[in-house]
C-alpha cells in the first residue's frame, strides 16, 4: 500500500513539474495567428556567414552594407532597429506582374542569418507547396516541392543572451507551421525566392502579412494584429485564381 502511495505521489510530482515547465515557456515561443512576427530567434553561431558555402555566401552578400557607418552586430548594437517607409504609401495587394511565382504553401522551418559583413540580418523559410497559381518558366514548381523564400530582417540571439531584432515595420515574417498565399520573385544566382507579399490562411480567415496602404499603418507598437480581409479563405483564393493574368500565347 505504501509502495502504491509513493508511486502516486511521484506521478503527481512529475505532472506538477511538467505543468510548471510549460507555464515558464515564453509566450513568444507559441506562434499566434494573425499577429506581426519578427521571425524565429536564431543563435548567433547558427546565423553567422559561412564563406565555404558558395550559395550561402551569395545570399549573405545581398544584404551587405559597404557604405554603412555601423559596426558589426554585437553587444554594443541597438537591441531593436526598425525601418519604416515615411513617404506616400501604397503597395499592390496582388503583384502578379512583379512575381515569378504565386503559390499556396506551408512554412515548414525558418532561420535568421547575418549578412556577410555582419551588419544586417535576413531570414529564410523552407516552404512546402500545396498549390501553384502562377509558376515561373524555370525552375518548374510542382506540388509538395520545398522551396526557400527569404525576406530582409530577423532576430538573432548573441552568446550573452541579448536578442537583436532588425525589422521592417510594414513587413511581417511568416510563422513556421502556418499556411500562406505567397507572391514570390525568383533569384537564379541564389536559387531562392524573395517574398514580395503574402496572406496567412487561418481557419478560413485571411490575414494580410504586410501593411499595403497608408490607413493600415497607424500604430505605435511593432508587434500588432494583422489586418483581416473581408473574404473568407475560399472566396479569397477564388478571387486570386480568377485575377491571375492570362499566359501569353495561352487560351
List keywords for this structure.
251 residues, alpha+beta, OB fold (Dihydrolipoamide Acetyltransferase, E2P), five-stranded mixed beta barrel, four-stranded mixed sheet, 4 helices, 11 strands
Rg, Cα atoms, Å: 21 Å
Q: Rough shape?
A: globular
How would you name the oligomeric state of the polypeptide chains in this document? single chain
The helix content, as a percent range, equals: 10-25%
End-to-end Cα distance = 80 Å
Task: Give the biggest sheet.
Answer: 5 strands, mixed, barrel
Number of H- or I-type helical stretches: 4
* H/E element sequence: HEHHEEEEEEEEEEH
What does the average pLDDT come to? 85
Query: Which class best fits the helix and strand makeup?
Result: alpha+beta
In CATH's first tier, which class applies?
A: Mainly Beta
| Number of structural domains | 1
Report the count of strand segments.
Answer: 11
Assess the beta-strand content as a share of residues: 25-35%
Low-confidence runs of at least 5 consecutive residues: 8-30
Identify the strand order in the major beta sheet: 3-4-5-9-8
Examine the coordinates and then state which fold CATH places here, giving the name of the CATH topology.
OB fold (Dihydrolipoamide Acetyltransferase, E2P)
The CATH architecture name reads Beta Barrel
Amino acid at each position: 500500500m505504501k509502495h502504491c502511495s509513493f508511486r502516486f505521489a511521484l506521478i503527481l510530482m512529475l505532472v506538477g513539474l511538467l505543468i510548471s515547465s510549460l507555464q515558464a515557456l515564453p509566450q513568444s515561443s507559441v506562434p499566434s495567428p494573425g499577429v506581426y512576427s519578427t521571425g524565429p530567434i536564431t543563435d548567433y553561431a547558427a546565423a553567422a556567414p559561412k564563406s565555404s558555402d558558395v550559395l550561402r555566401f551569395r545570399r549573405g552578400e545581398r544584404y551587405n552594407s559597404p557604405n554603412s557607418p555601423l559596426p558589426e552586430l554585437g553587444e554594443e548594437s541597438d537591441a531593436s532597429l526598425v525601418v519604416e517607409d515615411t513617404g506616400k504609401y501604397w503597395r499592390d495587394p496582388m503583384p502578379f506582374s512583379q512575381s515569378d511565382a504565386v503559390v499556396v504553401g506551408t512554412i515548414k522551418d525558418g532561420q535568421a542569418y547575418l549578412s556577410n559583413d555582419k551588419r544586417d540580418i535576413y531570414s529564410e523559410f523552407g516552404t512546402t507547396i500545396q498549390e501553384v497559381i502562377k509558376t515561373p518558366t524555370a525552375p518548374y514548381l510542382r506540388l509538395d516541392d520545398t522551396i526557400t523564400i527569404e525576406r530582409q530582417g530577423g532576430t538573432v540571439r548573441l552568446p550573452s543572451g541579448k536578442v537583436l531584432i532588425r525589422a521592417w515595420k510594414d513587413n511581417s515574417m511568416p510563422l513556421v507551421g502556418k499556411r500562406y498565399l505567397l507572391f514570390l520573385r525568383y533569384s537564379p544566382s541564389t536559387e531562392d525566392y524573395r517574398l514580395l507579399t503574402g496572406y496567412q490562411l487561418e481557419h478560413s480567415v485571411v490575414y494580410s502579412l504586410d501593411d499595403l496602404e497608408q490607413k493600415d499603418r497607424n500604430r505605435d507598437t511593432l508587434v500588432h494584429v494583422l489586418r483581416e480581409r473581408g473574404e473568407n479563405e475560399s472566396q479569397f483564393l477564388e478571387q486570386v485564381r480568377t485575377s491571375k493574368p492570362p499566359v501569353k500565347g495561352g487560351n
